[in-house]
Specification:
The chain has 320 residues and is an alpha/beta fold. The protein has 8 helices and 19 strands. It folds into 2 domains: 184 residues, FAD/NAD(P)-binding domain (3-Layer(bba) Sandwich), CATH 3.50.50; 124 residues, FAD/NAD(P)-binding domain, CATH 3.50.50. The strands form 5 sheets. Strands 1, 2, 5, 6, 7, 8 and 19 form a 7-stranded mixed beta sheet that branches. Bound molecules: NADP nicotinamide-adenine-dinucleotide phosphate.
Length: 320
């Protein structure tokens, strides 16, 4: 048997976050033996959070990494094969079968589910990276509730920043918005809501140059941020309990460029339900969703893509 024949699958799921694993659970239960290329850092953005309190079914919350481990096990239970490998190249031009390459392997499949998610953009400071999940977060919806009556700061000036700052005011007693310019890029209506909120103080023309922390038992805890005035170069510090970064997300779609249609920001476009511009290639989760970006919506989307992919394979009589 040739290598190609050994590596041929009914369906390959690219991505190992809530969308990818949910797709794999449904495809597995549908007896399609999916291969999941979950990426070197499998688990997606939930690996960066601590407690997840808003995923239905866990009244007492669940740790993000634990939730992903459970989803992964559930997919394996139904026959999914999962490899923690990054996809380096795809070729959808001739398919089906479509070609998918990892660093040292090549696979073909009659259907593909793209679930590579999106990554939050970070400032890139060493102190910020070290404290992700321990006081530094890129998701107010996920982590805001941990800051009841605390003081937090949020970096950004777009619609996400406005939305997240407003959300944080439900919990925090004070929310600083730190923006590098003297104008927001957000829509006027969102800006106005921010201006009208007494709990929010805007620090214009500043960037965060360091996240300050101290040891609290075994854990490191955020205690402040060092700021630099972008006009004068002067530095100052603020005392905060948490720092939120809302400077945008980037869909993880580099490898699909030229293969399927995307919008101007790089999000995958879907046409008939979850099908992309290429028949047989489906997409789910944050890679298509700039609006909701929740684990539960990604999981729901993964389910939809799996159902669409299996119906399509059946219709085309492509199941082996
Ligand atoms: P965005 O519009 O690209 O805004 C990013 C913000 O972060 C900008 O204000 C930018 O500053 C700032 N920023 C970028 N890099 C930075 C850095 N290294 N240091 C400090 N600040 C930095 O991103 P977004 O807010 O996530 O929105 C993305 C898209 O989704 C937009 O089209 C938005 O309208 C849409 N969206 C819509 C809704 C809604 O309709 N409800 C909600 C969320 C998002 P500058 O302004 O100086 O460039």
């Amino acid at each position: 048997m040739s290598t190609e024949a050994i590596n041929h699958r009914n369906v390959i799921v690219i991505g190992g976050g809530p969308a990818g694993y949910t797709a794999a659970i449904y495809l597995g239960r549908g007896e399609l033996s999916p291969l999941v290329l979950a990426g070197y850092q499998a688990g997606g953005q939930l690996m960066l959070t601590t407690e997840v309190e808003n995923f239905p079914g866990f009244a007492n919350g669940i740790q993000g990494p634990k939730l992903m481990e459970e989803m992964r096990e559930q997919a394996i239970k139904f026959g999914a094969e999962i490899l923690n490998e990054d996809v380096t190249e795809v070729d959808f031009s001739q398919g089906p079968p479509f070609r998918v390459k990892t660093y040292d392997k090549e696979f073909t499949a009659n259907a593909i589910v793209i679930a590579t998610g999106a990554s939050a953009k970070w400032l890139g400071l060493e102190s910020e990276q070290k404290l992700i999940g321990s006081g530094v977060s890129s998701c107010a919806t996920c982590d805001g509730a941990f800051y009841k009556d605390k003081v937090v700061a949020l970096v950004g000036g777009g619609d996400s920043a406005m939305e997240e700052a407003l959300f944080l005011t439900r919990y925090a007693k004070k929310v600083y918005i730190i923006h590098r310019r003297d104008k927001f890029r957000a829509s006027k209506i969102m800006q106005q809501r921010v201006f009208d909120n007494d709990k929010i103080e805007i620090i214009w023309n500043h960037v965060v140059t360091e996240v300050l922390s101290k040891k609290d038992g075994f854990l490191e805890k955020v205690i402040g941020a060092e700021l630099k005035n972008t006009q004068t170069g002067e530095t100052s510090t603020i005392e905060i309990d948490g720092l939120f970064i809302a400077i945008g997300h980037k869909p993880n779609t580099e490898i699909f460029k030229g293969q399927i249609e995307m919008d101007e920001l790089g999000y995958v476009k879907t046409f008939e339900h979850t099908m992309t511009s290429k028949e047989g290639v489906f997409a789910a989760g944050d890679v298509v969703d700039i609006r909701y970006r929740q684990a539960i919506t990604a999981a729901g989307d993964g389910c939809r893509a799996a159902i669409d992919a299996s119906r399509w394979l059946e219709e085309k009589e492509l199941i082996v």
